[in-house]
Known about the structure:
A: mainly alpha; Helix Hairpins; B: mainly alpha; 2 strands
Amino acid sequence: MDPIIYNKIITVGVYGSAIGLILIGLYAVLVKKHLTKIVIGLSIIDSGVHLLFIAVGFIKGGTAPIFSPKGIELVNGGAQMVDPVPQALVLTAIVIGFGVTAVALSLVIRLYRHHNTARIDHIKSLKW
Amino acid sequence: MVISPVHYIALPLFAAFLMPLLAKVNRELVKIIPGVVLVYLSVVSVILMQQVVNTGQPIVETLAGWQAPWGINLVFSQFTGFLVSLMTFMATLIWVFSYRFKKVDNEPALKYYILFMMLVTGSVGVVLTGDIFNMFVFMEITAIASYSLTSFYRDRDGAEAGFKYLLIGSLASTFMLLAILLLYTQVGTLNMAMIAERMHTVPTGMKVTILILFVTGLGIEAEMFPLNGWAPDAYSQSPSPVGATFAALVVKAGVYSLIRVIFTLFDIQGAYQYLIVMGIITLVIAEFAAMKQTNLKRMLAYSSIGQMGFVLIAFGIGTKEAVFGALFLMFNHAVIKSLLFMSGSFFVYNSTSKEINGLSGIGKKFPYMGFLFSLGAFAIVGLPPFSGFWSKLYILIAAADESMLALVAIILMVSIVEIVYYFRVVAKLYFGKPTDEEVVHKPTFGGYFSMTVLAAVILVVGFYPDLITGFLHRAADTLLDKGAYISNVLGH
């Protein structure tokens, strides 16, 4: 296959699946009634955003952004380094997402014990 | 030890992680250490503010030896310094208030103070940082601590309020992350000064998209309509000192980040008008909703949302006087709303229900508490000679100067609504028929102390507004001077 078309397919595929993940997650958060499914939806949205981050920083054929003798040699030979900033950001974002999911699940457990149900339409002591 | 803005972040965070260990040594340490840290930070605030005012230059602290565009930096300017000092002083008073707080006295005191210190770290960090992704991280620290504090009591509907808050909050943080990503692809940097410098290269359509994502993400903590559904539940279900903390720290951090993004990063025509429109909608809806409430804490929460709408309007007018008024209102809101939450919580404790009707005649049982609550109520609706009068007056003058007379009319009309629902409570306190219930929990000494200090601040600032107007004027100038911010941070 022609490498240019191949690259295009890959690019569209990666960006498309990232946006698809975000939309699937949003659907789950907005439509699903079960608390656990909502938390899973939040987690899926996070994954989509993380994938988008990685895709933005990617350069095809780029080397790792490390200032080692080998890396400097490669750059002098005309190779490009991938952008390290999005990768650093995504690591932080994954950790934060993990923390939020953990808090969310513990709240789900608390809600389940309190109301004896995990369906959001059955929990309505705080309607306004 | 050299005093630097880093202490604001390092010390509370260190204390928060040290506390589980200290609790094994001595349980009292858990309660004392946060106070030591916060009192120290208040002293730091005084020293740094003095230094900043004397030199007229902001303190820019680079972290880990990486210079400005590459590393993370902290900016302690007259504007951020003012907000940080306000937050630190309020946090100290809230610590005094909750030192022997009834419910956190026993086992969960450890959890409470850990989360409280995390909250302080996060909201102070949001204001100090000069890096947009770092701001996101601090925002998340604040948010996670707030979720947990909202659901602190097991025997209330805290978990439901906390889950609602978490749902809105984590969607918002996703939007903010997307905005940061798009911004990074456009300008290739995360440093806020550099972003502001390069912003003119970004196409307008992209700018608007990014700004909308930012506003959605940050408007949650700033309680902007329609993203404020979490606020009434969170305020009413969380422990009372936490309600004061939300009003004094979390919301301030949210408004700050929104203002920083709109004023410094973007220069879009129409963003200011957008702020005014959103502010008016927030103000009107919240004040009318507050009038309908029968639960005291929910009423205070809606009033808090309304005040934030008012702050957004004032920032949206965008002139120097208006920004000055907005900052004055933020100061007043932190002080007065904390006083209202603190004194209101004692009434709620001493009545069997949380309803306003259950407060009938309680002001006669607690004359001093009744006096403090009435003082707060008079101050927040803007009666002279209290401090709330001045902020409202300055904002109205600024609006009139810009010949936005419809805006003046709306603000004054909404003020009447505000007066109606606050005076209804005050009337109930004094002229209602006292109930025979004798469930008397006396406020602690710390409670009396912090509430008296807040009341004194309201009165003193009301009589001598010149005490703080100097700081506020300089803070407003610093916020509006974008070029100085860029050159100070980037050093050229």
